[in-house]
Fold each of these.
Amino acid sequence: MLSTEVRLKLEDIAARIAGGLDVTLAEMQWATKWSDHNRSAAEILRKARRRAIMGEPAKGSLDELMEGMDLGFEDPSDHLIGPQNPIDLANWFKREDGESDWRQHD
Amino acid sequence: MVSQTGASTIKLLEENWEDIRDECLKVSGYIDYPEFQIYKGKWDVFGIIDLQGNFMPENAAKCPKTTAIVQQIPGVNTAGFSKLTPGCIVKPHKGFTDDVLRCHLGLVIPEGDCGLKVEETVYRWEEGKAFIFDDRALHEAWNRTDFPRYVLIIDLLKKCL
């Protein structure tokens, strides 16, 4: 468990990382030592780095949920293989190509 | 403008690049670069000096020539091999601290679309050539070739340059 003093110092460093502000090497070394041995510290730093790269997630978004639960990294561009714009998506659901709908097979 | 210390570091690395390359290709124990959020694809690294500035004894023992060369560099803070596999893209990002500059030594550089962009400047690595850039500037890298790219990465303390 982190002491209040350590947690506050970690959160200060994390806030600067998240904001793209400078952190000294000594601060990073100190924070990394904590994160290597403490899950809470690692989570604070991981979230900060993620925020620095991705920016603040939209309210109610999957990114926000995943960030809040520290579940990793949601990047739909890594695995999105279907239609990517709303019109293509709508056309796909309309299924105007004459193919039978698999839902009618049951 | 590279300082005299920076220039001597580059000279040292370039004079010994083939030994470094041979060890880079020989060692086992590359791991995924842990900051998964900044890249797509597979980016493997082999640490020699960690962020605390300490040699990683098990890895250093696997590449004794590189370790001996790196030990001669004033103000070296971190060091390691970086393997960017085909198709890997490192997204635009900035380093944490203004206290270091980053040096890359090209070791195995495939032909084709493989490079590093620092702000608006695009660098192409060359085998046996080293350069220094500011890691705090927005930078990105990519390997859109069919072969892996290997470089030696070293962080140098600015106050020693």
Note: The helical segments of chain A are 4-18, 25-37, 39-54, 62-69, 86-94.
Amino acid sequence: MEESSPVPIVTAMLVCDQIIAEQGTNKKSLIGIFEQVGALTFPTVMPRLSVYVRLLDAFGKYPFKLRIVNLKDETLLAEVNGEGNVQDSAHAAELVFNFMGFAIPQAGKYEFQLYTRDIYLHRVTMEVLQIQGGIPPWQQPQRR
Amino acid sequence: MAAAAAPVVKADFSPSGTARVELEKQEGEILAEQVPYAKPVSEVPVIVHLTSPTGPLQTRPSARQNKLLFGALNDPLYRLRRPIPLELSVEESEVVLTWAAADEFGYGANTGAALDDFGQTLRELYRRLHDDEPLGSDLLNVKRLLDEYIEPRTK
């Protein structure tokens, strides 16, 4: 991103199981959008995890950085760097991050933070829950 | 036992869209096997295989930065001409973001929450200062400063 490049804004940022891009149209299908995930034991590994980002006002080359942060103590879990080239500022640009074998050390809240050239753009949070007795909290019967 | 420093996993993706970081051993233990390596999908710009080190004995670097640039105005009517420089401090376990030039702040339990709060403060301040109400000299200076960073969206 050059100094004169506009600061893009993020109009959507979602975490899901998988993102499929259709050949030909390049339309994206987001499969299994979620904000909570359960695990029996920790550390655990998520076989697939994707982050979808939709940007406006972007034009030109941008270095993007996705930081994964443990919100319990704001420690850095991982950092992914890449570059995007937006050639048409009249339309939204899309970014897709696909992770495979993503390790989660403990239950808690985690945040995906998007930066370009060290400029904070947006964040999305994912909560990792400890499943008791094999039943995720959102499927356990409610007590009256 | 002293805590072992755990390197943060860094994965740069290549133009072909793939990168891979091997599983790391944790005190002789290997994390659960991943799914088989999938053929890269060329339409999707980024495929990252990564496994971050885990375990209570490991320490990780803090994600907090002393200085950062704010680019998340998130307003349908206004946009940033350029990012706003902020300084981060922690007061009584609360994250405080300071825009010293305008004497504006954002507070939150973590950096993300403080950034949200700062963005909200900024949007409200910009609207209030452009309300056609008469302003004192201090507020006029803040308005001029805001106009250097924020402009109305034209499309």
Note: Chain B touches chain A through 49 residues (CB under 8 Å).
